[in-house]
Amino acid sequence: MQASSVPLNQILFGPPGTGKTYHSINAALEILDPDFLRDHGEPEQRSALKKRFETLMKAGQIVFCTFHQSFSYEDFIQGIRAETQDGQLTYSVHNGVFKQLCDRARIGVIAQNDVLDKAIHQLKKTLAELELADADTDGVYGLEMRTRTGKAFRVRPSRDHTLLVFPSNSTSPKTQARIMLKDLRDFYAQNPTGRLIAGETYLWGVLDYLKRHCHLPVYDPKLPAQKAADKFVMIIDEINRGNVSRIFGELITLIEPSKREGADEALSAELPYADEDEPRFSVPSNVYLIGTMNTADRSLAGMDIALRRRFVFKEMPPNTALLSGHRVGDIDLGDLLSIMNQRIEALLGREHCLGHAYFMPLLDPDLSDSEARFKLLSIVFQNQILPLLQEYFFEDWQRIQWVLNDHRKPNADRFVYQVTRLNTDLFGAQIDQALDNRPWRINEDAFTRHSAFAGIIEVRQVAPEGATPS
User: Fold this and answer.
1) Is pTM, for the whole model, over 0.85?
2) Which terminal residue of the chain, N or C, has fewer Cβ atoms less than 10 Å from its own Cβ?
């Protein structure tokens, strides 16, 4: 069941550096292990949260992917992939990351001791190779196995979470049966539920083959091979960088809470590359989607038609409170970020503000030396803040100067300045005086001056109009 406080589909959106990817870990743990998140919520316990997150990823309960311009429906849902074997080019259907997650969620089990999953993976690989090698035979192919009584049967692969089994002398659809991998797991664990599993004869034969050929050990009840998992999470970083309609395809409707499996208005779709006998695809109700969106990268309004109705949007604004009270010399980092963002919001809009994450390394307790902290602040401005402002304002240097308050600083404290006089050898004195488009320069020395940074917050001295640093 869906937790009422946690939406099935959510997007964390905000400017660069506001911790969207950082907080996606917390959002995933809020869904999968809220008690652990509550008990390890302090900043100094971040490493424990990250370790728990990585454990859930390894178990297959969390999948992380990043959208980009080359990411496609075939990568996300299902598509055909070209492969070479013995110099021959072949094409096979591969499930994308989201369909793989949905298939696991539908079974509702994750590996705790993954020896069975590894054995099944090896079996599927063998079946795929055998089917390719036997493609030109008379149609009776597959991997032969035997039941407990010695009766032969054949196994063929299926692209969903099943195996196809046939009598040894036939592959007719009328004689085929399906083995559910969930039933195989239950049978491996000696059927602890006590229920009768259909096709137990075939299940015994498959497990016997796995033990003899795929290194599957005898089940040990002291080391359970699996545990129930009722929720699964897909994290999509930079969701607005990909072509959402192209990547999701028909799933843009199927991910709606009201269209999930088990809902009153549930919908399913036939995937383009699915087998004729493969069930129609739908999205389980225990799959959660968490996206992150950089609002400076593309207008949020451009995504509304495709995503707004299907996702809950949670804004991640810059958090200056994390920086307030932390100083580099006499410069309060919270005040520094706050005043720059106020100016950016007035000039460009709040979606282009600067995130607090750029300044978080300055809070490192191991960085106790004041000069080392100032040097790091200078590096942050030179390598991150100023290049980002150049991108935001399309190198409109005058507006960049306004954000940094350079137009009201002493000459030596200006980070950027406009050249007032060109070399007269270029055009001559008369042309030089008539030129309006004068170049801008970056004042490297300003990054070494405490007063240049302090001047972003408050005016120490008003420089004459048009003055150039010496």
Assistant:
1) no
2) C
